[in-house]
Amino acid sequence: MKAFNFPDIKPVATSLESALMEKINNKTKPLGSLGILETLALQLGLIQNSPSPTVDKPKMLVFAGDNGVAVQGVSPFPQEVTQQMVLNFLAGGAAVSVFCQQHNVPLQVVDVGVNAELATVPLLTNHKVGMGTKDFSVSPAMTEAEFLLALGAGVKEVDLAHSEGKNILLFGEMGIGNTTIGAALMSALLSKPVKECVGAGAGSTTAGIEKKIAVIETAFTRIEAFYQQPITDLSPEVIAQELAGFEVVAMAGAMLRSAELGIAYVIDGFICTAALLLASKLNPHVVDYGIFAHQSHEKAHLALLAHFKAKPILSLSMRLGEGSGAIVALPIIQSATVFLNNMASFESAGVSEGL
Ligand SMILES: O=C(O)c1ccc[n+]([C@@H]2O[C@H](COP(=O)([O-])O)[C@@H](O)[C@H]2O)c1
Ligand SMILES: Cc1cc2nc[nH]c2cc1C
């Protein structure tokens, strides 16, 4: 298969690093006392290559898709919940909807592959790649063409947000069965045992988790027999086509485009971080532009975050997905730029500096 040539992402420019650190350190506070807010201020300054970064124009993009593997009973919820939740997002009744309303953040729901005809639903962007992926335990989840279309859907949504002048993007997803996908991707891309990558998802029991492990291992056996190689030796493009979901690939595309445009983006929970893992295997610089919102209660998220050496902002035992952790973290991210831009310095306020 031909390599996927995604446009180049530049590592963040570090020329302003010392100026930013000096600005942070000269604020009227003991050195380092704003903790992770200071780390965020530095990261945002580097991403925007500005001593005064702003993140006052956010947009939430929630990518929704169905996953064929749901027929294996890997989720406690039926597949039609994906479609029902999309309607709930749009009606304003979901967690992500009410938190976006709370913070006055526009919410765009993107249908990349919900297994229902939603074309006429107002407010929904339609980038449908298909009516959901195939069951990866018996066949590849998607074709190469579908993989590229799903990446492109994420790219298009970010281009639109960029044209609207947005300066921070929040990503979320909805897809029954997609914690199994996140687990499979994590195991294949990081060469970790499947059992370390699965968790309860939307509420699977111990037996349900065992089922998830068995379904992923069946898929790996199928894939390794087909390619005559260990799954961990396959390219990230092939691994994604074999195992991913349209919503996960679209999020990876959105992250890659966001990074390419120099726009900071907020990473939600386990599935969103699995999408980042895929994106990072396509271009490792994508990670520099991402802000880790929270540590999900999904068991494997901790190890996935550790892979990125990430220190997420929040740890609230949330395990909902749909961008809920990203939107809850947004005011804190905004506070990082507010202190950097508005706080007095020792000099301007006439406050004596410490030793
Ligand atoms: O992202 C997370 O941390 C997360 C953890 C557990 C569940 N979810 C959400 O729950 C759905 C997937 O759960 P499941 O059990 O159907 O695989 C999907 O719609 C996700 O948004 C999300
Ligand atoms: C009800 C419900 C809401 C969700 N939001 C994101 N994933 C979800 C999964 C379920 C099952």
From TrEMBL:
**Organismal lineage:** Bacteria, Pseudomonadati, Pseudomonadota, Gammaproteobacteria, Oceanospirillales
Gene3D superfamilies xref list: 1.10.1610.10, 3.40.50.10210
The gene name reads cobT
Keyword hit for Disulfide bond: no
The EC number of this protein is: 2.4.2.21
Catalytic function, reaction form = 5,6-dimethylbenzimidazole + nicotinate beta-D-ribonucleotide = alpha-ribazole 5'-phosphate + nicotinate + H(+)
Naturally occurring in which organism (per UniProt): Marinomonas phaeophyticola
Recorded hits in InterPro entries, A to Z, give: Nict_dMeBzImd_PRibTrfase, Nict_dMeBzImd_PRibTrfase_bact, Nict_dMeBzImd_PRibTrfase_N, Nict_dMeBzImd_PRibTrfase_sf
One molecular function GO term is:
nicotinate-nucleotide-dimethylbenzimidazole phosphoribosyltransferase activity
**Active site (UniProt):** 322
Name this protein carries in UniProt: Nicotinate-nucleotide--dimethylbenzimidazole phosphoribosyltransferase
Print the keywords alphabetically. Answer: Cobalamin biosynthesis, Glycosyltransferase, Transferase
* Cited function: Catalyzes the synthesis of alpha-ribazole-5'-phosphate from nicotinate mononucleotide (NAMN) and 5,6-dimethylbenzimidazole (DMB).
Pathway annotation: Nucleoside biosynthesis; alpha-ribazole biosynthesis; alpha-ribazole from 5,6-dimethylbenzimidazole: step 1/2
User: Keyword Transferase, does the record have it?
Assistant: yes
Give the family this protein belongs to, as stated in its UniProt record: Belongs to the CobT family.
